[in-house]
Description:
By secondary structure, this protein is of the alpha/beta class. The protein folds into 2 domains: 10-297, Alpha-Beta Barrel (TIM Barrel); 320-601, 3-Layer(aba) Sandwich (Rossmann fold), CATH 3.40.50.300. It contains 24 helices and 17 strands. The strands form 5 sheets. The protein has a 5-stranded parallel β-sheet with strand order 11-12-10-13-14. Strands 1-9-3 form a 3-stranded parallel β-sheet, with no helix packed on it. Helix 4 runs parallel beside helix 5 (161-171) and helix 23 (573-586) packs across helix 24.
Amino acid sequence: FTLNFSFPYAAKRIISISHFLEEVKKLYFCHGLYTGVSGRRKIMCLMNFFYIYLFQALLDTQNLLRAQITNFTFNLGFSGKFYHTGTEEEDEGDDLLLGSVDEFWWFPHMWSHMQPHLFHNESSLVEQMILNKKFALEHGIPTDMGYAVAPHHSGVYPVHVQLYEAWKKVWNIKITSTEEYPHLKPARYRRGFIHKNIMVLPRQTCGLFTHTIFYKEYPGGPKELDKSIQGGELFFTVVLNPMSIFMTHLSNYGNDRLGLYTFVNLANFVQSWTNLKLQTLPPVQLAHKYFELFPEQKDPLWQNPCDDKRHRDIWSKEKTCDRLPKFLVIGPQKTGTTALYLFLIMHPSIISNSPSPKTFEEVQFFNRNNYHRGIDWYMDFFPVPSNVSTDFLFEKSANYFHSEEAPKRAAFLIPKAKIITILIDPSDRAYSWYQHQRSHEDLAALKFSFYQVITAGPRAPSELRALQKRCLVPGWYATHIERWLTYFPTSQLLIIDGQQLRTDPATVMDEVQKFLGVSPHYNYSEALTFDSHKGFWCQLLEEGKTKCLGKSKGRKYPPMDSECRAFLSSYYRDHNVELSKLLHKLGQPLPSWLRQELQKVR
């Protein structure tokens, strides 16, 4: 091995780096694809430097690596503001590199290497990108590779929506990369995701940083670097990751040229000791290949940016995690969730989200495509609490209960949140949903009787099957609760007896307050009054006035016939037995309706 690549002017370049590269971080990244013992790795290396003494070495190394890595091409990044701002030799290096544009691939950095999360409006970001694009066009740099990198991972994750929108508008970006999703460490857990139609690939680390510029001064000694290359961490990163992206800085390509040393010797070692074939794809092709291999990673899992210091450092200071809810009312529908919502917002310390214009008062973030709008969109529904310790933000979305995605998504974003669900007889819930759909003139509900809906077979019309699913599936209570308990501890789950909520709401609300730990204690016995005309409890206002649920609530409809009741009792028998076992396991009392149903089983 060649151990030292010192060059004239190396020490002089360190000074230049301190003012230039502090603003312009440089890239060197590699990708791979594994297909078995004699499999493949796709390798792409990106660098960003402008100095004359590197140019020939860059071309020579590119040709050298092409003998081991099919289609290997350096991908160079640019921040146009710093063009011709160095010494005479550095400026000459700029011109030499730009005179050979066709030898490399290119990608845009930020014009002045500013971190995107520091720009609080999209227009400012667009202006910066337009300046960089103008620079590229003036110097014949291709602008259609579809790849971009944000300084310090800023704006990529945690997502700064303005960056994604500006990237699409100015550059039509299709791919970027970051080390930060879901976290920097452990590295083996890094994943990709797609947001705003931009594919984000995971990036790995290679042990080279701005300060690691001399072989003999490598942290831990030169043997540590060589050990990483020769069967150590860096080697196994390539071997175990189908595609690996590494980044280094400009300083690693001057001085002792540890960037070139590391990856040339890594390629040699992989070729000598494995049957892997290394190769390169252009960025967009590489990203498509990645998500062909890992389609399950397409959907992101948003996390609280304030739970990770690195994330917090690259998140806008104008944003606050205090706007995330402390608890969720998850449903299911037609069990009394709207009544519970009304009772909750009576409490002086409990604050709900603002109503969604599309889904009534519900946000429906964790269970719908709204999730892909990102956490900025979600938090915009909540006010900034006046007192973080005493104010309790919450939202009610009754579709969360039976959603397959909602529990995991909620646990990743708000892992300490309390979860509240309400259970009534699932037969009554199914019938109530059917009548609800009829009142909203759902064609299937108007066309088919309730018995036809609940007994429909697999060959029934699709609209009938869809209605049947919405009637029956939410009543699989044990199945859905166990899914939530996969992601939340039992201490964070409260199961409310919907029948008790209807007949004795004050007692239930005392239990809810205790569960939430909210203060001050609110006396619902004095704040609620039963409206005999409407048939449910209402908020008691001044001068004896009341505030009740809307006309759509408490609607009267014909009782369920005995044939439907018998069918549903049989249909839910096993589900109810499983629910009773689960409640016993959780130390929860059985609701009166469940005890009645279990008596039919004996």
